[in-house]
Amino acid sequence: MNVDERHLTATAPKYPSVMYGLIGKITAAAGKRDELVSILLGSTGSMPGCLSYVIATDPADPDGLWITEVWDSAASHQDSLTLPAVQAAIARARPLIAAFSNRVETVPIGGYGLGKTAAR
Amino acid sequence: MNVDERHLTATAPKYPSVMYGLIGKITAAAGKRDELVSILLGSTGSMPGCLSYVIATDPADPDGLWITEVWDSAASHQDSLTLPAVQAAIARARPLIAAFSNRVETVPIGGYGLGKTAAR
Q: Is A28 on the interface with B (CB under 8 A)?
């Protein structure tokens, strides 16, 4: 390994080879969807290892939200649940949630629009 | 409108206010999933209005793929289907696809990891 290679190794982002994805539907308590969206939008700012986290409404269900997530590893997703900002958001969101459904775990391979992970 | 406003209008990316999302599962013909992934990965490079297009395998189904998409508008998604590169990919992919399922249209609101749209 020459000096240039060491430099690259030291500075390149560390992406484990297997990404982790989640797709799921959240049904908000009646009339609480917009409030829930605000909480979710506010909690996606700096989650290490998060490559994509998209919050979408369901035009066929006035209480429905779809969340699609891509993480650089399953461990990063798991770790995110312990972040104080995420725990605070979960505590505020829980009373607004009627149900979770349609949950699918995936292994994202690639595509377009995957963000860079926040600094750890 | 003053000069500065005109300048902003002329150069700012044009995002319609309502994004368009798609979530769906593709079941590949037996043994053809990886070939299908290659075709899909090769077709996501420059689709105007595409903000996210993630291809993921389903660890619970050896033939299963999940595609999650975010577009700046429903029209951009519709227009993408007429792009020569996309039409060529569809023609190559079709014989490798056994079924489409779990299709959900969404209205993405925001989050993290939405790419910039390719130049039109």
A: no
Pair of tokens at residue B56: 């993921």
Nearest by Cα to B108 from A106, A44, A75? A44
- A80-110 burial code (b ≥16 CB/10 A, e <16): beeeeeeeebeebbeebbeeeeeebbbebbe
Which among A94, A66, A84 is positioned nearest to B110, based on CA atoms?
A: A66
Assign 3-state DSSP to chain B and report helix, strand, coil percentages, each to 5: 30, 40, 30
DSSP B36-83: HHHHHHHT-S--BTEEEEEEEEETTEEEEEEEEEEES-HHHHHHHTTS
Whether residues A52 and B113 touch (CB distance < 8 A) is answered with yes
pLDDT tens column, B60-78? 999 999 999 999 999 999 9
**Roughly how many angstroms between the first and final C-alpha of chain A, as a whole number?**
26
**Which of B37, B59, B113 is opposite residue A113, by nearest beta carbon?**
B113
Predicted ipTM? 0.82
- Judge whether residue B38 has pLDDT over 90: yes
Beta strands A50-58 and B20-28 are unpaired
- Does pTM surpass 0.80? yes
Domains defined for chain B, CATH in brackets = 31-106 (3.30.70.100)
Compute the distance between CA of residue B109 and CA of residue B34 in angstroms, rounded to an integer: 32
